[in-house]
Amino acid sequence: VPGYEKSEGVDPERNTETFAQVILWVDNERWQGVPFVLRSGKALSRDRKEIRVHFTRGQNNTESLFSEEGGNILRLNLASEEVNLGIFTIQKAGGVTPAPMRVDDPISPEHLSPYERLFLEAMSGQSRLYVRDDEVEEMWQIIQPIADAWAENEVPLQVYPAGSDGPPLEDPGGVTESRHSRTTAETPGSEPFPSYY
């Protein structure tokens, strides 16, 4: 997998972010202590569109999300035309045992490209793939301080090798600043070269 700076038409001297991770918290009783970790990036090991629910051991215990001894995982793979459901259980011996299940998605039997799906939704008056005005305003309240910090070089650029899973997931309890990253041309397993924002 080539790194971003090796892509056609990209200035290798330009330090453009290719990965973002945001950890959000919902301030209400129901979701108290539950982190929502959103990760997106380029040149990763594989294309993924998935939702993972990590079950922790005990109330407000996020440490098991970021350790080898984490709790059980429910994974919803949304990348294909079907919804694939996988349950990964932690055994007493410490191993992880997948218990894959498959659930067919009856909503979209046609094989449509992402843009075709957007246009179809718009023409049929459906709005489930679009955001409302108030949602856009909330998103910018989150994004603008991050963009400002990047523009002022207040946030260090983390480097991750192309073809990897991106930077390691950090414990949200210890995250106090925004992070952004860029892929390198290095192959997975090799030491990435320094990159500057």
Describe the fold and architecture.
The protein has 197 residues and is of the alpha+beta class. The protein has a domain at 4-107 and 155-184: Dihydrodipicolinate Reductase, domain 2. The strands form 2 sheets. It has a 4-stranded mixed beta sheet with strand order 2-1-8-7, with no helix packed on it. Helix content is 15%, strand content 26%. The two termini are 22 Å apart. The longest helix is centred in the last third of the chain and has 19 residues, at 133-151. It contains 2 helices and 8 strands, in the order ββββββααββ.
Give the SSE map.
Elements: E1 19-25, E2 35-41, E3 50-54, E4 73-77, E5 83-90, E6 96-103, H1 114-123, H2 133-151, E7 157-161, E8 179-184
Parallel strand pairs: 7-8
Antiparallel strand pairs: 1-2, 1-8, 3-4, 4-5, 5-6
Low-confidence stretches: 104-109, 174-180, 182-197
**CATH topology tier name of the domain at 4-107 and 155-184:** Dihydrodipicolinate Reductase, domain 2
Strand order of the largest sheet: 2-1-8-7
- Beta-strand content bin: 25-35%
Distance between the termini: 22 Å
> What is the approximate shape?
globular
Radius of gyration: 19 Å
Please write the CATH class name of the domain at 4-107 and 155-184.
Alpha Beta
CATH homologous superfamily of the domain at 4-107 and 155-184? Dihydrodipicolinate Reductase, domain 2
According to DSSP, the number of beta strands is 8
Named CATH architecture of the domain at 4-107 and 155-184: 2-Layer Sandwich
The helix/strand order is EEEEEEHHEE
Largest sheet, in brief, is:
4 strands, mixed
Oligomer: single chain
Tally of separate helices: 2
| Percent range of helical residues | 10-25%
What class do helices, strands and sheet pairing give? alpha+beta
